[in-house]
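In response to reviewer comment 3 from the previous cycle, which asked for concrete evidence that the modeling workflow produces usable outputs, we include below a single protein chain processed end to end. The sequence was submitted unchanged, and the resulting C-alpha cells are shown without manual editing.
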Amino acid sequence: MQYQFFSKLLSVLFISLLLGSCSNEAPSDKTSQQAVKAEGVIAQVGDEVITFSQLNTMLNSSAMVGLSIPALGTPKRNKVMITLLDKVISANLVYLDAKEKGTDKLTVYVSDMKKFEDAVLATMYKSKVLIGDIPVSEEEVIAYYNSNINPEGELNDDSKLAIEAMIRKQRFTQLRDSMRERLRAGTEITVNEDVLSTNSDAGRSDADIVATLAGKRITWSDVQVQMRGADYRASLAEFYVDNDEERLMRLQEYIDNRLMVDKAIAAGMDKDAEFVKRTAEYRKTHLINVHRAKLIDSWKPSDDELKTFFVDNMDKVSVPETRKVQMVVVKTKEEAESIKADIESGKITMFQAAQQYSLDPNAKRTLGELGWVGQGSGFDELDDFTFNLEPEVIGEPVESPAGWHLVKVLDVKDAQYQNFDDPQTSRLALRLYMKNKFNDYVVDLRKNHFEVAVYEDELNKHFQKEADYIVALTVKSKEQGSITEQRLEGMQKYITPPPTE
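The workflow returned the following C-alpha cells.
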C-alpha cells in the first residue's frame, strides 16, 4: 500500500530527474515501458547497459558517489537510486564520447592502463603463486601444541584456531622472505650500478642501460618514475632520490615487478576473470576521467571571459555577510523603550527580556536567538537596520508588521568571495564555470549524440520487490519465537530494573 501511494510521485520524480537538465526543449531520452533485453537491465546508453544491482552496489559505496543510504524499500531510497541512475547515465555518455573521439588512443591513457594492468598482474602472481594458499592440517596443530604448549592441558577449538593462525603467519613470513630468490631462480639479471648512481646524473641519457633482465634491456627511461623523490614536480624532472642505496632498492623492486608480470602473462593470468573484471572497471572509469580533464582543459576561459562570468553569477559564487541575531518583539514602542532601558541599566538581560516579554512564541525556548541570518531574509524594515548595527549594541526600537523589535547582533561573519581579484574567489568562479560547461556538454550528448533508453517498468519492479521484502521481514519479525522477538526479550533484561524487596 505504501509503495503504491508513492508510485505516481516517483514516476514524476523519475522523469524530472532524468530529463530536467535538458532545459526547456523536448527531451530525446526514451523512457521505455517495453520489455528490456536482459533481466535486471533498467537503462541503456548506446551499447552500455545499466543494471539495478550495479546501482545497489554503487549506493552501498556512498562515500564514492556522495549520496546517503536510506532504508531499503522506502520512497526516499528510490529517489536516491533515481538520482544515482542519472549520474551513471551521464558517466556512460562521457565514456562513449571519449571512445568516439579517440581518447582511449592517447599516450597518457595507454600508459596509465599499462601501469595499472601490470600492477594487477604482479599482485595476482604474488598472492596466487609466490605466496598462495597456506593450508595447516590438524596434525600440524596438535604437533605444535605438544611441542610448544603444555601437553597436559586441553586443546579446545579456540586454542586450535590460535595455533593455526600462528603457524600460517610463520609460513607467510618464510614465503615472503624467500620470494625474491624463488622469483628470480634461473633468470639472468645484471645491474649497472655505475649508470644508476647519482654521479652519472649529469651525463646520463634516457637510453642508458641500468640493468638487463633475461637479456632484455632496462633503460634509465624505464625506471625514471621509480626514481622520483619527494620533491619531484612534473616540470622539474631532475629531482630524483639522491641516495644510491635507495635507487638500487627501487630498481630491484622494479625488476621483481617486471618478472612477476611476465610470469603472470605466461601463466595466462591476463585471461583470468578476476583480472578482466578489475581492469575493465578501471579502464572505463579512468577513460572518463582522462576525457573529462581533456575537455576541461580545452574550455579554459580568458581572464575577461571568467570575470564576465563571475559578475553574471556572483550570487552563486559569493557568500554574503551573515549575522547572528537576538531579538525581542513587543506590541508598542513605549514597551520596547522601557525594556531597553532596563537591559542597559542591568536590571535584566536580553535573554530574560526575550523569555519574559517577547511576542515570539518560541522565545521562551530560544531566548530570542534567531541564529545566523542573511540580508534580505527578514522584514524589509529590519533588514538595513540589522546589517548596519554594531555588534553587541542593542538598537533603538524598530517597527515591522509583527510589532516593535529590539535587535542585538551577537556575531558577524563577513562576506566572502566578492572580489574577483582574490585568487580563491577566481578559483571558485572557474570551478563553477567549468561545472556549467561540463553539464551543458553532457546534456548535448544526451539530446543529440547518443540514444538513452530508460526502462521505467523494470526499475519500478525492483522498487516493488524491495518494498515487498521489507514488508515480509516486518511480518516475520512479529511472529512468536522470531529472532527479533528473542533479541528484544534479551535486551529487556538490561532495560528493566530488578524488582525491589
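Confidence is low (pLDDT under 50) at residues 1-28, 31-35. We consider this sufficient to address the reviewer's concern, and the full set will be provided in the supplementary archive.
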